[in-house]
Amino acid sequence: MTEPLLISFDVACPLDHAFATWTDHMAAWWPADHTVSGQRHVDVVFEAGVGGRIYERTAAGAEHDWGAVTEWQPPTRLAYRWHLGSAAATATSVTVTFTPLGDARTRVDIEHGGWERLGDAAEAMRERNTAGWGAVLAHYRDATTKGA
User: Fold this and answer.
1) Is-above-0.90 flag for pTM?
2) Among the CATH numbers 3.40.47.10, 3.40.1710.10, 3.30.565.10, 3.30.530.20, which is that of 5-144?
3) pLDDT at residue 146 above 90?
4) Which among 64, 80, 95, 122 has most CB atoms closer than 10 A?
């Protein structure tokens, strides 16, 4: 079994803003080079509630599914199946927990697992996602300071 990725960091904003930035404003921080279309101006939609879709919509209206919400507990926790750029059957699992730290700070904990669904590619994809999260989360941290 391939171990899940565990990522923890703090952001300088209140709990509800950290959650909303992740879900309602994902397009503001998700980099264009981490999309299916690769286009610069896509809308990233994170539909609220269990069963909600996560997808990108291009300016021309094309939609590309990225995943589906499996747990929705605003503003403290959410989980989803994640298959950006691959088939839904190979989706991994992401759980994000938001914990208030006081003084308008929030701890964000991510557990990204389910690598066994990828078969022989599990270890390589885990390593690829380690680098990917590093790049993406820098944008998220920056976005949390805007309008906090």
Assistant:
1) yes
2) 3.30.530.20
3) no
4) 80
